[in-house]
Design brief:
This protein is mostly helical. The protein has a single domain, classed as Orthogonal Bundle (MetI-like fold). It is built from 14 helices and no strands. The protein has helices at residues 2-29, 34-39, 45-55, 61-73, 87-122, 127-141, 144-158, 170-181, 183-208, 212-219, 224-253, 255-261, 267-277, 280-308. α9 packs across α11 (224-253). It starts with a helix and ends in a 7-residue tail after the last helix.
Amino acid sequence: MAKFVIKRIFSCIPVLFVVITLIFFMIRIIPGDPALNILGEDADPADVEALRERLGLNDPILVQYVKYLKGILQGDWGTSLYNDLPVFENIRSRLEPTIILTIYSVSLAVLLGVPIGIIAAKKRNSLADYGLTFFSAVGMSAPGFWVGLMMVYYLGVQLRWFPVQGYTFIEAGGLKGALYSLTMPAIAYALSHVSSLARYTRTMMLDVINNDYIRTARAKGLMENKVYYKHALKNALAPVVTNIGFSIAGMLGGATIAETVFNIPGMGKLTYDSLMRRDYTQQQANLLFTTILLLATNILLDIVYKMLDPRIEFD
């Protein structure tokens, strides 16, 4: 296992290099001048040019790229063009809401999606199966931003059950206050993933229970629940872990929408604001940091995959 983890870490290096390169050049393709955004449309052209020179934006693109690579290798990801703070400082101040929202959403998706899939598979072709499958299809089809807006209106404005926007940091309101402020975005965020996990779990369970060893277990007289939950579920969950990994990646990547709809000061909102301001340095750091989180998550999920099914061998 240790050998596998080391190999996976080293295999991430080429991926990071490609990501760094793509991020650097794609951000600069986007129209807009960071210096003009900082100083305003009515700024004196001489002031704009002076700021561009100070920020190094007048250097040839390849020179900027080499400087950026050197900074990454030295552990210096740069300073925000917008507020002149180290990019890590901006990330640190926005990381808590995004991490908690992702964990909250993934937990809801797993705790609801997997049991729903198991029940639907166990009651195959019954009214319960059809009903759960139908609601799963509806959940996957409903746009997350629309669900979020509907929840804001009905649960926030009309019923006043939850705050309609913002986030209560743990330091101010404790973990309970933080989770309470994130309940609506977490539900809206997790809904499509609940549906996806439910359908995938159902498919995997139906595939497993048709195997020969399940029929053998039943023939030996084992109780149905033991056959279903001890033998079938254990083998069906290994592929589901991969789907959970996709859900985590989708939630981290889609945090911008949820945090914008609910006005949460997290990484997604920071990424959106950085893009609008053409804050190249901050945007590069945000995307690279998210990539590292995703790679680390994939390695952890591979380890869980191995624990669920020891027969799996990693090359």
